[in-house]
Every structure is written in structure tokens, then in C-alpha cells.
Amino acid sequence: MATRNRTPLFRKYRDALKSVRAPSTFASSSSSSGSGPVIELANAGLFKQNSNYAPLSTEDPGTSSNTGALTVGLPPAWVDVSDEITGNVQRARAKMAELAKAHAKALMPSFGDGREDQHRIEGLTHEITDLLRKSEKKLKKLSAGGTSEDSNIRKNVQRSLATDLQSLSVELRKKQSTYLKRLQQQKEYKFINSTGTIVDRIDHNIQNVAASVDEGLKQLQKAERSQKRGGMIMCATVLVIMCFVMLVLLILKEILF
Amino acid sequence: MVLVSSVRDYINRMLQDISGMKVLILDSQTVSVVSVVYSQSELLQKEVFLVELVDSISMSKESMSHLKAVYFLRPTSENIQHLKRQLAKPRFGEYNLFFSNMLNTTQLHILADSDEHEVVQQVQEFFADFVAIDPYHFTLNTPSNHMYMLPAVIDPPNLQSYCDRIVDGIAAIFLAFKRRPVIRYSRTSDIAKRIAHEASKLMYQQESGLFDFRRTEISPLLLVIDRRDDPVTPLLNQWTYQAMVHELIGIKDNKVDLGNVGKFSKDQQEVVLSSEQDAFFKANMYENFGDIGMNIKRMVDDFQQVAKSNQNIQTIEDMAKFVDNYPEYRKMQGNVSKHVTLVTEMSKIVEERKLMLVSQTEQELACNGGQGAAFEAVTNLLNNESVSDIDRLRLVMLYALRYEKESPVQLMQLFNKLASRSPKYKPGLVQFLLKQAGADRRTGDLYGNRDILNFARNMARGLKGVENVYTQHQPLLFQTMESIAKGRLRDVDYPFVGNHFQQGRFLKDLEEAQRIARSSTGVV
Fold it and tell me: A87 and A160, same structural domain?
């Protein structure tokens, strides 16, 4: 896949010829040849604006046509329409990506009832269908006479945009239906899912019971121990008291006798 | 390294860097180059909204500055003149010029001189200068090249331009593949020699910088051969799918015009037959006629199954499925009916012209000896009312080529018979063929009777028997390819050009050679 770029050589020749040509026709062509690169820049700017501009910015066509009028003719009105549709398609595409994300998010198991997600999805879907419908209406405007070449171009532009719109709407439809399908599936196994948690909880409870049995045993042992220990003390106290009583009796016996 | 994809890549590269609405302007030759590999809808995806020919674009004067012009032209002087006029009064916002081959300095000067408004953004050479009809098969669409065989035309100025076109095409192929080939040619052909030498001069001297690619271990081989080395193959009726369609109906730039064959509805009048876009054709293009019948039957059965499932719509889900699959279904329907139509039409022709009968004798003449039997068979066929004039002529030609030296008397008898049965042909036609492509003019061993080895191989084949009498003939090219693969192609018969062949002389890139050789068969 070899290629050869002859642009530099071509430019060189062109510049060389321009400098030859310039002196002879200096008076008439000085402005045009002098501002050559400027015109080119203006052109480039014009085209960039045209291809990017969205229907939101209503001032763009005015300003661009002002700068463009000097160098090139105004593009026909249908170009604006087609640009608008292209913009719509682009926005619809961006929205579509958002929608895909929203679908994915809504399908994730989460706390709460996900009503917010549902709202968002509905909103996005609505916006996209709206964009598509609007574009479709505009598309019809494109097809109107003109010269044969121009109408040819229009037809082709229309065809290409229509293909884009078609594929977008098919995509939207597919996305929606898969989303709904998956949502349904999810509802079916939500039951299984919650059963799962119950099972899990039983398991957890069994562990709890085991732990409290252990604890009770320990308590019992402690109680037993403390019980045993209480008897000894009683015994000792009785003995001490008995000793004391015996001692008193002994002293009384010594004093009295 | 496939022709179709490299042309596609060139076109992609042309269009992808230019944003916005575009108009693609082609000439009568590049329109074939582009349309065999690219479709209209693909162009639309690249924002190409108008495709015009360079001579018709200058008809209209209306300004279309919202469009960017992408020219893809051959660097011919007419095209340069067209451009000169169009650049003087620019209609489009910017001009991107792509040429399918090398521009010379003068042409570049003329363009630079006419671009006073400085609307030209780029001038590029993208070497897609060949019509890539199959992945390994291209053509240069040089019509009526047989003109150069006529005795009255000795060295017309046209011959040079014709020769240039072929050299340009070959050069573009090798530039597209980034290779520089070793060049050989068939010794007895003047035109082959001329093309080989001019190609060599271009690649090794004039534009040696452009062709200076990284050396590969195996250099490709460019073998320039002359159709006159093998006059037999084009005289035989073919029995494989693509070849048959081309022979009986005619394929041009992968399109088949059914208008001449019968009455068809408008969308069936012209059909596309491309191995790239049609899986069935790709699988069957080299299949025998009989097998194709079977395969088409299978395809129709499959289609019926799909059609039946489509009829059976009961639930809303079925409906949705049907709507989703409908475009695919329509496509399938179109394809099925296309192949069925082609095969039906061809069977009709085969029946009408008794081609089975004719072909059997043709193959006998091309492959086996036995002059007496052959004479009798040809005479019978000449007497047969159903055999068409063209087939009679071909039979006599085949007989003449085979028994040119052995039986002049019987040959004369056949000439006379042909003249009385099919008077529309001039009497000297067969003699002219002998003069042009007779045994003395040919390079290879067409009938395998010149050296002992080939003779023995033929005998062995005769003893083994053949699978299919209608396809037993193998073109000379097949033998040539085998010799190349084994490194046994004789230097005496196929000399080298220059001395660029030392490296890897016996290691030849078979595939490359096959491609070049096949395409060069168009050469005279």
C-alpha cells in the first residue's frame, strides 16, 4: 500500500508560479493572492463550524455566512437542515449510550425500589424517540426539487440520514426489548434470590444458637461453682461461730467456777 | 496481500481524513476500480453524497462550495486538461486530488499553474490502478487488444498507449504490495518482451526510489506471457460456474447483463456477481456445472425453510421477529433468485447449442491424439444443425491448431465445409489464427508433445483415465505455474530482464506469480 504525497512539490510549484504571476497582475490580484492563506483559514473555520454546529446555536449560520460570503457562496438552505438532523442523530446517539448505562444500573440489584432509575429510563427513551421523530419530520423537508445534481445530493444525504435514523431506532427497540426481557427474568429469580437470603439467615441462626448454648453451659458451671463455694463459707462461718460460742462458754466456765 | 482489500484500503484512506460532505469524482476507468470493491451505501457512510464522472462534472456551472471534491483519476492528459478547466473556475469548497498512478513533473506543473484560487488541498498518488475483480485476480479492462494482431497495424501510436497502460497497471500492483519483482517474459512474443522491458526500466531506473522497498527473502516474479502461447484455452467451452457465466452471458466488472439473454424484470436485468459480496458465489465459483445444480437446490431448500417460518406468524413476538429479519430475508430471496436465473438461462443455452456434445469433441481435440477420429467428430458436428456457428468455427480452429502440420488435406476439407455451413465468417479467419498462434509462434509446450517427459506424462494420464471428460483440459498456464514452483521454468524460453534476479532465483513466490500470470493472459 505505497502512496506518494505530491502536495509539497505541488505547493512549491504553485508558490513559485504565484511569485512569477504576482508582479504582472499586482494591482488587481494583490488582495486575493496576498490573503490566500487567510482565505483558506476562513474556509477551514467555516467548514468546521458547519459540521459541528448544533441547532441550539442559532447565531452560527449568520456569522459563518458573513465570513463565508466573501470567499465562497452560501450553502443551500437544506444543508442547515441536514446539519440539524446530523446534530440530532449525534445527540440521540449520546443519549442512547446514557440509556444503556441507565438500563445496566436499573438491572443491578439495589436497595430501594429503583423508582428513580425507572423515571430516568423513561425520560431518556422519551427524549430519544422525540429526537428521532423530529429528525424524521425534517428529513421529509430535504426532498424537494433543485438542479439534477443538487437533487441527487439531497437524495443521497436523505438516504444516508434515513439509514442512520433507521439503525438508531432499531437499536433503541432492541435495547428496550432486551431490557424488558432481562427485567422480567430478574423478577422471576428475585424470589429465588430472597429465598437464598432466608436460607442464609437460618444458617446464621444456627450459629447463634450454638453460641448461646455454649454461653449457658459456662454460666451453669459458674453457678455451680459459686454454689459450691457458698456452702463452704457457711460451714466455716458456723464453725467459727461455734468456736466463738465454745470460747465464750469456756470463759464463762472459767469465771464462774 | 489481497487485491480487493488493498484497493479498499486506498479508498478508505482517501475519504477518512476529509470531514464533511464530499463529492467523489472519477473517470471512466477509476469508476470500475472503485465500484468492484466499494458499494454506494459504504460511500454514503463516508459522507460521499455525489459520485460523478470527471467529464460530466464540468457540464454544470452551479457553485457547490458546501461540498469538498475528492478526485480519483488516472493521470492521463485528458484528465489533467479537465482538471485545469475546473480549477480555473472552482465550484467546490476544496479540491483533493488523488491519482491512481505516477504523475510526471509536467502534469504537476500544469496543475499548479491552473490552481490560481489555491483551492487544491492535496495532491496524492494512490496506486489503485487496476480493477480487482477477485481477491487474486485483476484486469485492466483494455478493450479490443486483439487489434494489435492485425497485419495492417504494424506499430500504431495506440500500441504505445496500450503498452503504457499495462505497464502502469503492473507497476501499481507492485506498489500496492510494496514489492519489486524479478521480471521474465515469453521469448517468442514481441509485445511481452516490450512490456517486460518497459516495466523493468520503470521499476529499476526511472522510479527506482519509489520501488525501493525493504527486501524480502523471496522476490516476487513477474512473468509476462502472451495469449498466443495458448490459443486453445479460450476456444474451449468452460464448465465451472464463473467461467461459464462469463463465456455464455458475459461478466463485466463483476456485473452480468441479462438483457441480451431474455426478458427480465427491471431489478433482475443486471445482477452483481462478486465473490466478495456473495457467499454462495464465493463457495461455488469454481465448482462444476453439475455440482452447482445440487448446491443451488440446497440453497433453495434452505430458503424455503426460512420462508415457511416467516409464514407462520401467530404471536406478536413472531411479528417482531419477522420485521427484524425481513431485510435479511429479502436479501436472501434476491440472491436465490439471481443464481436460479443464471443457472436456468445457462442450462437453456447449453441445451440449445448442444454444448455437451460440442465440448466433448473440443476436449478430445485439446487433450488426446487420434487424428482420424477427431476429423470424423468435427465433420459430424459441422453437419449437425443444432450446433451454432461460433461453435463450428471454434471446432475447426481447434482442429487446425492441433493438426496444423499433420493433415493439410483434411484441414482444407474442413475449411470448405465451414465456409458452406457458416458463411458469415470470412474464409481466412482460421488461417490467420494459425499464422498468429501456430506452432512456430508459441513458446510453451502446448500439446505436451515437444519433449519426452511431457509426452510420457500425457500417456500416463491417458492410461489412468479422466474423471470428467468435459473438464479434462488443463490450460498451459497450469503447467507453467508448476514449473515455476519447482524452479524448472526454462531460461531459454522465458528469459529474465536485467540482472536483478540473483537473490532467490529458485525461490519463487508462487501466489504472486499466479496472480500476475493470470492477469497477463489478457495481454494480446
Answer: yes
